[in-house]
Amino acid sequence: MNVFHTADPMRAWSEAQRAAGKTIGFTPTMGALHAGHESLMRAAAAQNDVSVLSIYVNPTQFAPHEDFNQYPRTLDADSALAARVGVNAIYAPADAAMYPPGYATYVDVERITQRLCGGSRPHFFRGVATVVAKLFNAVRPHRAYFGQKDAQQAAVIRRMTRDLDLGIEIVEMPIVREPDGLAMSSRNKYLSPGERQRALCLSRGLALARDLLNAGERDPQTIIDTVRNAMNGVDIDYIELVDAEAIVPLDRVRGTVLLAVAARVGETRLIDNIKFTAPDDEE
Ligand code: AMP
Q: N or C: which end of the chain has fewer CB within 10 A?
């Protein structure tokens, strides 16, 4: 497997693939890979001729008080998993290569970054959009794979890709969960056994909300209150029901909605969500 640490050799490899008529599938990650990442890499390998994985813990999407330094870094295990699932190249740039002295350019996606994670982490989506734009320019993929786990992030990347005419197909893959419902996350490694147990109230609250939606409940506040009651053992950051693309609140469930939650369990911030599409004949 090829491993590249700077943009020029990465792009040269991708250009050679393109010149040979091959399609490139790309999975951007921060490493510490788990079955959620694996589902993205498998889709990228299955739907394209070659696939690229990036591993980069991006400093510009962390605030000074956040967990950039503690974030798990497991490059050897990640490379072994990537090889098993058919990844052809890994792009693992160093900070000095990504943000050299004098670096001054950022991508700001407006409006849809204001709420949910953008509300509690104001720096976050500017860092994400900037790094993904840079990764796209190095990897030059035909398709890029993102998880619904970070549904607002996927919406931001779709918006940026359309707005900047990047010509890349953005594929969003379902959330992969542990058998007990906890959404897989690299940050689950931080949880003590007791916290791990308490963290289940996120997915349980969302499952109750899904039952309500399936039963025809269309009042956002009723749905949000149900989730809030289920999440009484953790420190809630937000519970919001929004239009899944515009990321704005709705006075009634219509179209495709995103019900997203974030909470702190001990020191660890966790997020989870469900999407629901109201039947066409409603309204
Ligand atoms: P991260 O390494 O956490 O930045 O995640 C890299 C990509 O993997 C993002 O597109 C995430 O949405 C996706 N991802 C993370 N966890 C999961 C999961 N449990 N199921 C599906 N995709 C996931």
A: C
